[in-house]
Amino acid sequence: MLTVHYLVNSRAQRILWLLEELEVPYEIKKYERTPQQRAPPELLEISPLGKSPVITDGDVTLAESGAIVEYVIKKYGNGKGIPSESGSLDNLYFSHYAEGSLMPMLVQKVIFDMIPKNVPFFIRPIISAVLAQVTKVLIQPEIKKHLAMIESHLEKSKSIWFAGGEEPTSADYQMAFPLEALVKSAPELVGPKATEYVKVVHAREAYKRGLEKGGKYAYA
Ligand SMILES: N[C@@H](CCC(=O)N[C@@H](CS)C(=O)NCC(=O)O)C(=O)O
């Protein structure tokens, strides 16, 4: 039985969505976050970086959501989750872009938001002011540029999905998390197509089943 090592409130939700869409039997091993919102040390016993998602499947232990998504679709997809020929380049691009370019920028913003709470109180106002300025000048314009590119892609797509087909593909399993995080944290920056996209994902029965099994999740 495939096991998803599931850190609560994390990207691992995308793996539950995928497994539910493909109707793959699986079990969940849940890990609570530490008070600092990190993964607990037990995850280090599963995989060397101690992050989630990780899956174990027989002799296989695999981390990195993009790799897990590809592995599951290839091994258990039965033809589902595969883009059409015309959508394959978009699928390739967005499958990698999600964690390669979009997520690092969002993580940077989360870290910047956390820094003031973790410095001595007497330097907090100055640190907050500096980080607010850096966010305004450097990070926000970048996020806007990314969201404009995504919006323009979704406007041109033949369907709601990133690869333009009838069903979600790996690009969607990868893109849903950063987009739902953005809709939650900065809805004013997200365009109408991407907002609609997140609504469609959240309305999928498979997504809802994954959510029910995963439990507490801040982004849906
Ligand atoms: N690029 C990796 C990122 C994995 C990752 O950073 N996961 C987060 C959860 S969203 C995590 O485990 N954070 C806890 C920690 O770093 O302590 C992936 O897509 O799987």
From TrEMBL:
It is an enzyme of class 2 (transferase). InterPro entries: Glutathione-S-Trfase_C_sf (IPR036282), Glutathione_S-Trfase (IPR040079), Glutathione_S-Trfase_N (IPR004045), Thioredoxin-like_sf (IPR036249). Residues 1-80 form the GST N-terminal domain. One of its GO terms (cellular component) is cytoplasm. Its EC number is 2.5.1.18. Keywords: Transferase. SUPFAM superfamilies: GST C-terminal domain-like, Thioredoxin-like. One of its GO terms (molecular function) is glutathione peroxidase activity. It catalyses: RX + glutathione = an S-substituted glutathione + a halide anion + H(+). Belongs to the GST superfamily. This is glutathione transferase. It comes from Agrocybe chaxingu.
